[in-house]
User: Fold these one by one.
Assistant:
Number 1:
Amino acid sequence: MAKFFFSTGAPGWMLPAMIKRVFVVMLLGLDFAKLPAAELKIWKLLDVWPGKVPGEKGDVPSETLTTHKYRGAPILKYNNVTKPTLTVFKPSQEQDTGASVVICPGGGYQILAWDLEGTEVAKWLNSIGVTGVVLKYRVPRRKGLEKHDAPLQDVQRAVSLVRHHAKEWGLDPKRIGILGFSAGGHLSATAMTNYDKRNYKPIDAIDQASCRPDFGVLIYPAYLVDKETKTELSPELSITKNTPPVFFAHAGDDSVPAEGSVRFWQELRRKGVKSEVHVFPSGGHGYGLRPSKDPVTAWPELCGDWLKSMGFLKR
């Protein structure tokens, strides 16, 4: 098994430049999707929190970035994240619609599938004129907390941060979406249904900006169904008429049952929230945007059509 190890033991002021250089080199080395070098440029890399990260006790090992094979191809994994960041990828000026999406990679709240469900997704979003903002949220699960407690703090702060900087970054503050895969899908769903109360004490002007996403995209989301009833939604997901519209994609043969996506969509429909759900006959779990013979490969095109029909890609 090939492995790349990256420890963030360097001084804090050096990390953004170091991570950017290592990240680009790794992408070039993996040659995923054979991207032109120009498309690999990181537009911005910034910390989610200005100082001490809420609730961190210093008991998590050093952060690492590793690579291994998954579904026959290499993927990058972030492990032991204690300092959340946002990596921003902007589309070309000619394509830019002003819309943006905060991307939440999956990984069971244990690791982050960084390229498969993060940077490769930003590349696709750029191709349809959307700024992709990849969130490196805290993993693994923190002892004594719900699996999503620390990540929810990170994603709420991330959405507010993008909205706070929207004018400066050339973005529309009313077209900031969220997109998540697997555990990242659960995190995105939790962010869309818990925006009215922050999971942390506000600390500065950024937290005055709303943390409500304007739309969501949930791809094979996990943990949506209550583990006790197995039919109702998880108790942290409270859907109202003000919940953002959502696009869902799931495979019928996924190890994570598609019933979670369908149940969430049903509740949105009952509340009058325009949404769209696709359950494909096959595709499994953890495919990201990588092409395969399975029909689920069509989800990005269908999602792009939905975003356009909902007015999120207007110029």
Note: Residues 15-30 form the longest helix (16 residues).
Number 2:
Amino acid sequence: QAIRGGVFSPDDPMRYTGLVDSLVDYDRFLVCADFDSYWDAQARVEERWHDAQHWWRSAVLNTARMGWFSSDRTIREYATDIWKALE
């Protein structure tokens, strides 16, 4: 409602009308579909941030568990396994 009301563009309150209308009336990519769960998750992140010890632990575990993920590896696997592009 703040965007639609021109809060972020007081000089041109209608600036974001097209954007808001497309998200509200035709959310093809489901940008807003899970916004409530995103908001809840963000609240949990903020709560964790204020607890330095738990934040540190979460950050270290998150980094350590990313070992298998690599965008290069993922793209290469997708190209060979899905597209059969590198065979």
Note: The radius of gyration is 20 Å.
Number 3:
Amino acid sequence: MTVAVPGEAVVFDCDGTLADTEPISDRAWADVLGVLGYEPTSEDRLATVGRPYAATFAHFATRVDLGDPAAFRQRVRARFQERFASELRLFDDAVEVLRAVAAGGLPVAVASSSTRAHVHRVLERADLTDLVTAVVGADDVQQHKPHPEPYLLAAAKMSVTARHCRAVEDTEVGVASARAAGMHTIAVLRGHVPAAALGHADRIVESLTIADLEPLTWTS
């Protein structure tokens, strides 16, 4: 299917947008924190969603003694990988739109707060690797979301202008990052971030379609 999409390129977030990995991450952190006697709250969830590992670690370090940072990270990583192997699922709407954009001849990138290796594992699971022009992970940038660097780098890797890109996100920090880069931004409601927190997106949708990338649907 060939689809005409405005702009020069589309950049997708990974966790929570393309892949339903946010609950896996939550459960992995909860598993490890539970051994230390701490149960994460909904406030913890909102404070850490969409943020890189270091920021999440710093958040929980103010609530409980996490011990040796390297050992703690290894425990979280191991628990996440165990759950990832059996629990990962992709969001059909985002996968379908990504395939349609690529079929329309436009470059596609993924900009994530997770590592580049993690993003590639997700793309491989969904058989999307060959459709994605560029991947930007947390290990590729000095400044993480909500800073614009991840999205600016994604645009640069595709050799396009950021203001001519569409960004698809699911978190407040992700929307802020894309907007700060100058991209028109669609926020997809996935159930872990309230719509009110995503109000600075150009458009908020409950399920993503190719039509959401078209200019007549934009509010700004």
Note: The chain is about 40% helix and 10% strand.
